[in-house]
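Tokens for chain A. Residues wanted.
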């Protein structure tokens, strides 16, 4: 059974202080959920976020939100370089192929995952779309899954499907996927 669609603000209410939250990255960065989570910084403390490269802003890494969030990046992009340099965020050097093992073996157990997915198919499966990488391991191991469902997210095949019954909250969005500027 799929959860009902809720607002992004209501969905991220499921995130608690002192939890570890995976954030899907690149063109699948769940920007609506990430912004909603960052806006709730006053109610949170010590939330560790783990992710690869996040597209767009990293609102949770703003200095005013340092008490609430501690980004832990497997890849440091422009949007986190200052936070890492200033000691407000961490960089965990690891091979991409080893990140799923960190989740699956409980080295970095995940309390929640923020995902950006395609609409469900006839059987109730959404696709992780453009960024499966370590996101599938996060989706399979996190205790709580929250997703923004976007009709613009392409359905990808292979080990990229997650059933709606795994989600605690869904947020309907219709926006272009984040893009990298040529440079």
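Reply:
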């Amino acid at each position: 059974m799929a959860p009902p669609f809720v607002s992004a603000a209501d969905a991220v209410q499921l995130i608690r202080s002192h939890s570890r939250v995976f954030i899907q990255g690149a063109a699948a960065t769940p920007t609506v959920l990430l912004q909603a989570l960052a806006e709730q910084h006053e109610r949170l403390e010590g939330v560790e976020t783990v992710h690869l490269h996040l597209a767009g802003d990293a609102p949770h890494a703003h200095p005013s939100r340092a008490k609430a969030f501690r980004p832990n990046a497997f890849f440091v992009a422009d949007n986190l370089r200052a936070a890492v340099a200033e000691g407000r965020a961490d960089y965990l050097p690891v091979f991409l192929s080893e990140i799923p093992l960190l989740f699956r073996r409980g080295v970095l157990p995940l309390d929640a995952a923020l995902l950006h997915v395609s609409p469900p198919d006839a059987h109730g499966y959404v696709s992780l779309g453009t960024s499966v990488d370590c996101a599938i391991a996060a989706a399979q191991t996190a205790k709580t899954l929250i997703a923004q469902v976007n009709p613009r997210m392409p359905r990808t095949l292979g080990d990229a499907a997650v059933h709606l019954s795994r989600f605690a909250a869904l947020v309907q969005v219709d926006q272009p996927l984040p893009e990298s500027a040529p440079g």
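Helices lie at 8-11, 31-39, 78-85, 99-104, 135-141. The two ends are 44 Å apart (CA to CA).
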